[in-house]
Amino acid sequence: MARGAFGRHRGGQAAASSTRTAPPVVVGAGQAGIQAADSLGAAGHTGPVVVLGDEAGLPHQRPPLSKDVVTDEGDPAPLPLVGERFFTEKRIGFRPGTTVRRIDRARHSVVLADGEELRYSALVLATGAAPRPLTVPGAGSADVLELRTLADARALRASLLRARSAVVVGAGFTGLELAAAARRPGVEVTVPEFADRVLGRAVSPETGPSRMPKTTSVVATIHRLRATVSTESLNRKPRTLIGIVPMITSQASR
Predict the structure, then answer these.
(1) Alpha helix positions (H), the chain
(2) Among 31, 43, 52, which Cα is nearest to 120's?
(3) Residues 6 or more apart in contact with residue 219 via CB below 8 angstroms
(4) Which of 39, 45, 148, 203 is 20 to 30 A from 123, alpha carbon to alpha carbon?
(5) Would you say 91 and 101 are in contact if contact means Cβ atoms under 8 Å apart?
(6) Secondary structure, 3-state, the chain
(7) In the chain, which residues have pLDDT < 70?
(8) CATH 1.20.1250.20 is held by the domain 144-250
(9) Third-level CATH fold of 8-125
(10) Which residues contact 143 (CB under 8 A, 6 or more apart)?
(11) For residue range 190-232, what is the model confidence (pLDDT) as tens digits?
(12) Cα 29 off chain centre by
């Protein structure tokens, strides 16, 4: 795998290269980050580029995480966004499992979790979204899980195999896909949503599922899922569960 070491040095040491010769650095190895790195070359950049990703392994597609990865009985490999050859041919130094702790704009550098300082000529932040943390009592319990990474999806699958019931917080596309996936092994699923309808951020009231008969079945069919979901709407009150990207909590083992 191509690993970049362009323009880096330990904090406290003199910079190995000036800002003028440092590479562009992209923080985030999802769809946006990989596209940004690729587009730099298309725009005329001829030097190296560094892409930092906090997950291990090659960048992968995220939509399957709420579908096939959660429901597959085996251990499916994620669908890659690009292969190793992409990084070699594009002169992109890809560094997986790397977390940025601080940005030093005065020094044109990022400081990594291990203390390494990495200089940049331009910095692209493409870190993507993260689940909104729950602030209610019990949110730190071991059976309250979130969905963002491949590791999260695999942990959810293991939990759903033991669960009798589950709560998925958030009735957007990802939440409903995950809820429908959870129904396949027979788990009883409830989806609390603070808005007055499901998919409120994605579709208009005229075309949304609130206007359709058998709402949850239709939503499941649209997303190529073969399950129905029980959906509830909650008012915005103290201690109400609220989520943009879903979290899931499962009750005791079967």
Answers:
(1) 31-42, 68-71, 84-89, 150-160, 173-183, 215-222
(2) 52
(3) 176, 180, 198, 199, 209, 229
(4) 148
(5) no
(6) CCCCCCCEEEECECCCCCCCCCCCEEECCCHHHHHHHHHHHHCCCCCCEEEECCCCCCCECCHHHHCHHHHCCCCCCCCECCCHHHHHHCCEEEECCCCEEEEECCCCEEEECCCEEEECCCEEECCCCCCCCCCCCCCCCCCEEECCCHHHHHHHHHHHCCECEEEEECCCHHHHHHHHHHHCCCCEEEEEECCCCCCCCCCCCCCCHHHCCCHHHHHHHHCCCCCCCEEEECCCCCCCCCCCCCEEEECCEC
(7) 1-19, 72-76, 206-254
(8) no
(9) FAD/NAD(P)-binding domain (3.50.50)
(10) 159, 249, 250, 251
(11) 888 777 777 777 777 766 555 544 444 434 433 333 334 444 4
(12) 10
Give the position of tokens 């992109």. 92
The residue count of the chain comes to 254
The sign of the CA dihedral 39, 45, 47, 49 is: negative
Residue the block writes with tokens 């989806």: 191
For 164, which DSSP code? S
pLDDT at 2: 44
In the chain, CATH 3.50.50.60 covers 8-125, 144-250
